[in-house]
Design brief:
The complex is a heterodimer of chains A (about 120) and B (about 190). Chain A has about 120 residues and is α/β, with parallel strands linked by helices. Chain B has about 190 residues and is mainly alpha-helical. Chain B is elongated, with a radius of gyration of 25 Å. The two termini of chain B are about 35 Å apart. Classes of the chains: A alpha/beta (about 120), B mainly alpha (about 190). The interface between A and B is medium-sized, with 35 and 33 residues.
Chain lengths: ~120, ~190
């Protein structure tokens, strides 16, 4: 597998878990601590897929998805939300913001990789 | 930390006038401080564990890559055995990746408990507020909106329905959790 994935989470241990999983499958992983950092990184470096948490300081994941969708380079880039939130309302807000899919934490590494392979 | 958390964590000065509300606020502040201290301690331990795990992952990947470079004569003997071992370790690592994420979830949930305690401490200090059923309902709504996970919402709802934490069916909740965790939906 190849491709650049932007992983966004305010928890360092979560970012590490995502990194292990994705790098082990051959992806290059860019990491951001929150939406603001991710938006900046997305503008300066291209990503083939964005994997983001929802609740983060400064800019939440759904705002990030909305902001990224407004950029020409990210109109069609798959964006997966990885969160502890499983409420239907929040999911719908994610869908409206432009997310490609929703994954409830804790993720299973094999399933995460299969999902990424499917949307890439 | 929310501003109100820091405020409520401050103990009342010695000699401050005794009121039941102030005592209650102090006790809530104490609970919150204990929780914060325990969380900081466990954060450090988990950070160390994640670092150790990172090294283990890197080493396993190095072994795997070295195995691929073995001369042909060793491939059928040594490499097969090594590959099986690496595969077994990799499977264990996948389980560890899932387990580590529960700590993250725990931290998030305890953060909500801490915020609830500090909010309650401020709330009870205002007698007119604490005597108003409407204000209590407003407080409960504020706390309900705080909860992000299905488990938190279920417990909140059960308590609102008058079911004590001891009466809640643990097994049923666990089954429900298992269904939700790892759930994937593509839009």
């Amino acid at each position: 597998m190849s491709g650049v994935i932007l992983a966004v989470d305010d928890s360092a241990s979560m970012r590490q878990m995502v990194r292990f999983t994705l790098e082990g499958a051959g992806y290059t992983v860019l990491q951001a601590n929150d939406g603001v950092e991710a938006l900046e990184l997305a503008r300066t470096s291209g990503a083939d897929l964005v994997l983001t948490d929802v609740n983060m300081p400064r800019m939440d994941g759904l705002t990030l998805v909305r902001e990224l969708r407004a950029l020409d380079n990210y109109k069609f880039v798959p964006m997966l939300v990885l969160t502890t939130e499983s409420g239907q309302d929040t999911k719908m807000r994610g869908k409206q913001a432009g997310a490609t899919g929703w994954i409830v934490k804790p993720f299973n590494p094999e399933q995460l990789l299969a999902t990424i392979a499917r949307v890439l | 930390m929310p501003a109100s958390t820091a405020e409520s964590s401050k103990a009342a000065p010695a000699g401050a006038a005794f009121t039941p509300e102030l005592q209650m606020a102090n006790m809530l502040g104490l609970c919150e401080a204990q929780m914060e201290s325990a969380l900081q301690e466990s954060d450090r331990a988990v950070d160390a564990l994640v670092q150790a795990f990172t090294c283990l992952v890197d080493t396993t990947r190095s072994v795997n890559s070295l195995t691929d470079q073995l001369p042909a004569e060793f491939r059928e003997t040594v490499a097969v055995g090594l590959n099986q071992q690496v595969e077994a370790i990799t499977k264990q690592m996948a389980s560890a990746v899932v387990a580590f994420q529960f700590y993250d979830k725990l931290t998030q949930r305890l953060g909500h408990v801490r915020y609830s305690l500090s909010t309650l401490a401020l709330f009870v200090c205002d007698r007119s507020q604490a005597a108003s059923p409407d204000q209590w309902r407003r407080l409960m709504n504020t706390l309900r909106r705080l909860y992000r996970t299905e488990e938190e919402r279920e417990i909140f709802q059960a308590m609102m329905d008058g079911i004590s934490s001891e009466q809640q069916p643990g097994d049923a909740t666990s089954t429900h959790k298992a269904v939700k965790a790892g759930e994937i939906e593509l839009f």
